[in-house]
Amino acid sequence: MEFRHLGRSGLMVSEISYGNWLTHGSQVEEDAAKQCVQAALDEGITTFDTADVYAGTKAEEVLGRALKGVRRESLEIFTKVYWPTGPGKNDRGLSRKHITESIHGSLRRLQTDYVDLYQAHRFDSETPLEETLKTFDDLVRQGKVLYVGVSEWNADQIARALKIADEMGFDRLVSNQPQYSMLWRVIESEIVPLCEQEGLGQIVWSPIGQGVLTGKYLPGQQPPEGSRATDKSGSAMISRFMNDDVLTRVQELKPIAADLGLSMAQLAVAWVLQNPNVSSAIIGASRPEQVRDNVKAAGVKLEADVLKRIDDVLGSVVERDPAKTQSPASRP
Ligand SMILES: NC(=O)c1ccc[n+]([C@@H]2O[C@H](COP(=O)([O-])OP(=O)(O)OC[C@H]3O[C@@H](n4cnc5c(N)ncnc54)[C@H](OP(=O)(O)O)[C@@H]3O)[C@@H](O)[C@H]2O)c1
Question: How big, in percent rounded to 5, are the helix, strand and coil portions of the chain?
C-alpha cells in the first residue's frame, strides 16, 4: 500500500481506502462484511469510510465490530452526517443539534472515542454555514473529531466555508469527498483547482463506477445475479451508467487493461490515483477477493499515452459538467 497526505494536513491516509456504503448491514451478511474488512487490513488499507445513514446506521455498527481489536492509532476512521437517521425533523441536516447528536451515535456504533475525519455528507441550505462550521470546530476542540471535511459540495460552497473559517478562526476543511471516475469527471474544472490552491484533498467515491468499470455488465444483457445492479438499494444509483453506449465503450477498455497486465478494476482505481489532488480512492466490495484485486492499483503509474487511449475510447460518455455536483435544494 502507498500513503498520501489528506490534502495539506498532517494526516496520512492509505491511497486506497475501504468504504461500506450499500454493503455492510444491507447487501451482504456480517460474515462477508468482516471478511472484506479483514482483507482490506491484510492488504495494508488503514483508512475506512462509512456514514451515519448507511444501512440505517447499521453499517457503522458492522464496521465498529469488524475493526474491534485493531490498534486504534493504526487506523483512520471517517464518517459523515447530513442524511436522515430518524423520523424527526431534526434527525437530518447540519444543525448544531443534529450534528452533535449524530456524532455521539456514530462514536457509540463505531466503538471509538473519536473519528479521524468528520464529513458533511451534503450542503444544508437550511442551516447557516457559520452554525455548522462552529459546531464542527467545537467537536475538534472536544477531541471527538480530528479533522473536518465535506462531500459533494460545489466549489462556491467550499470557498464560502473556507472564508468563514478563516474569518472566525474555525478549523479549516481538509477534504472533499466527491464521486470521481473515468466516467464521472465533474470535479476537474472547478473543485480540483480550488482545492489544490486551498489545501483540500479529494477522497473519491465509486472509482470503478459502482462496478461498471470492471466490465462485468455487458451491453444488451441482464446484469449478473448478486451484482450491485440487481440489488434493491444499489440499482437506482448505478442506472446512470447502465446503458449500451457506456457499457459498449467500457468493453473496449479491456485491451488497454490487458496490455498493462492490470484487471479492469485495477485500471479504474489507478486512473483516479493519477490525479495528484486525490488523497485516497474509496473502494467498495461485496467479496474479499474484490478488495484483494482492487488494491493492486496502489502505486501504479499510467503514462500519458494510456490516458489518451482511455479518453479516445470513452469519448462523449464522460460526464464533465460541474453543475452535476449538487446537494438537495431543501433537507431530505
Ligand atoms: N459521499 C458520498 O455521497 C458517497 C456516495 C457513494 C459512496 N461513497 C463511499 O465510497 C465507497 C465506495 O463506493 P462504491 O461502493 O460505489 O465504489 P466502487 O468501488 O466504485 O464499487 C464497488 C462495487 O463494485 C463491485 N466490485 C468491486 N470490485 C470488483 C471487482 N474486482 N470485480 C467485480 N466487481 C467488483 C462490487 O459490487 P457487486 O459485487 O455488488 O457488483 C462493489 O461493492 C462507499 O462505500 C462509501 O464509503 C460515498
Answer: 45, 15, 40
